[in-house]
Write a structure and sequence with these properties.
By secondary structure, the protein is α+β, with helices and mostly antiparallel strands. It has two domains: 40 residues, no CATH class; 60 residues, Zinc/RING finger domain, C3HC4 (zinc finger) (Herpes Virus-1). Strands 3-4-5 form a three-stranded antiparallel β-sheet, with helices on one face. The radius of gyration is 21 Å and the shape is elongated. It binds zinc ion (2 copies). The site of one zinc ion (ZN) has 7 residues, from β5.
């Protein structure tokens, strides 16, 4: 099996290619682009400003919020929504505490309920 390892240092990228089977060596190099793309997508660090830019403004719950009236709760932390807490809506229309979903997006970037991509 041929193997490709990508290492990221402060300002450089190192790609280690182990070739044990030289019969399909020509297949390895066209794949490097794809592998790097996947690597960077997976390792892309999401910042607060990316989340705000992509998902727009977040709101506080007030006593007239439907979620407060319906005694809804956050599906990440299982705590009720309370007045003055911040709420964040995803594009799929699922919503959570801002603090819970922001932390989640940085790790997983998929909606905890429907698994749609968050940003
Ligand atoms: Zn929560
Ligand atoms: Zn969702």
């Amino acid at each position: 099996m041929n193997n490709i390892i990508v290492r990221e240092n402060n300002n450089s990228i190192e790609i280690e290619v182990t070739i044990l089977d030289s019969t399909n060596i020509s297949n390895i190099f066209p794949n490097i682009n794809q592998i790097l793309e996947k690597y960077f997508l997976k390792n892309k660090k999401i910042k607060d400003k990316d989340i705000n830019k992509c998902l727009g403004k977040y709101k506080r719950f007030d006593k007239k919020s439907n979620e407060i009236i319906n005694k809804d709760y956050c599906k990440i932390c299982y705590q009720d929504f309370n007045i003055k807490e911040y709420k964040r809506n995803l594009k799929c229309n699922h919503f959570f505490h801002k603090k819970c979903i922001d932390k989640w997006i940085k790790i997983k970037n998929t909606c905890p309920i429907c698994r749609d991509k968050c940003i």
